[in-house]
Amino acid sequence: MKKKMSMDARKALTRKIKEHAKALGADLVGIAPMDRFEGAPKQMDPRYIMPQAKSCIAVGFRVLRGSLRGIEEGTFFSNYSSMGYGGITYLFMPLVVMNICRMIEDMGFEALPMGHQSDWRAIDGEGNLRNNFSKPVEPGKPAPDVMVHLRLAAFAAGLGEIGWSKMLLTPQFGPAQRVGLIFTELDLEPDPIYAGPKLCNKCMACVRACPGNAISKTKSIKVTVAGHDLEWGEIDCKACDLAFRGAKYMDDPSKKGYYIEGTENTEPNHISPFYYKPEKLYNAGQAVCGAGGCTRACIVSLEKRNALVKKYEYPFRRKKPWAVDWSGYSELNLSPDGHQGGTSSSLDKPKAKKVAAKTKLGTD
Q: How many C-beta atoms surround the C-beta of residue 194 within 10 A?
C-alpha cells in the first residue's frame, strides 16, 4: 500500500497537474472530489465508470471569439462549426485530456479521459433512456453508456456557474467554452465551488435571441449539485436541434420544403442563408445558428454589464444583428435533388445549381 501524501505534497502535485494542463492548451482547470457527484442520476454518475476515482479534473477550452465573427457578419458560417465546435471536440480536447491522463498514469494511477463524444450514451438529450438501446450488464448497474453532464461537472469543479440557458458561464469567457473531464484515482486538492460575482442576472437575452425559441422564459429546471441549488430555463431539445441547423417547419404546410435532406416540411429560418442545410463538419458540427442565443447574445449581455474579467479591444457585437428574408422560399419550386425549378422568386436569387467538385480556384 502506498504511503498517503502529505497536504503540502498533495497541493504541489495538484499545482503541477494544472500547470501541465495549461501548457498543453487548456484555458481553465478545476478539480472536484468525487463526493460532489452524490445525488447524480445513475445514468450520469461517473462513480459507476470508475468506482475507485477520487478526483475529477475539469478542463475548459475557450471558443475563440474569432470563430464566431463570420456568423456575426453573416459571411463565413463553417468556421464556428469546424474550429469552434468540431475542432475542439474532436481534435484539440482529446489530445489535451489524453496527455494529462498519460502524465497521471505514469505516476501509477488510472486516469480516464472524457470529452463531448457521447454517441453511445443510453439516455437522450432530455435524460430519458433510449428505447431498445442497451441494458445493464448486471443488477444495480446503469445501462451503458453512462454520460456525465459535462457542464455540471465543471460547476462541481469550481469553473463557473450555470446560466438560465443551461450553459456553463465562466468569469473569463462567459458561455464560450467547451469542457473535457478526467477522472482519476489520484487524490488531488479540490477547488471551491465558484462564489465570485454573479454572472447570470436572468436578463433573458438568450431567450429572446434563440432562433428556435428553445429556451423557456417562465419554466425552469431545478437541481442540487454539491449542496448548491441550481436553476435554468427549460430547454426544448427538438426545437433547438431544428434551429441549430438553421431550419424551421414550413409556414404553409400545404407546400413542400427541402431544407433538411430527406424532409418535405422544412425551410430555412431567419438565421440561415443557405437554400439547403450544409453538410456536417467533423462528423457533428452543423451549427448554422452559431449559438445565437445561448452564446452570442449572452456574450453581448455580459460585456455590456462589464461582467467578464477577460477584456478585448473591441466589443463582440459591432452592429445590429442581421436576418435573412425567406418570405419567398416556397415560391422557389425547390426539389430534393438540389435544383431550383423555373418559378421566379420574390427574393430575386440566382438559380441554385449543383456545384462541381472542383472550381477554377481549386479545392486544396
A: 22
Q: Each residue of 66-119: pLDDT tens digit?
A: 999 999 999 999 999 999 999 999 999 999 999 999 999 999 999 999 988 778
Domains annotated for the chain, with CATH where assigned, are 7-129+142-199 (3.40.109), 237-332 (no CATH)
Confidence of residue 346 (pLDDT cuts 50, 70, 90): very low
Q: What torsion do the CA atoms of 166, 203, 155, 146 make, to the nearest 10 degrees?
A: 0
pTM of the model: 0.90
Cα–Cα dist 222/233, whole Å: 9
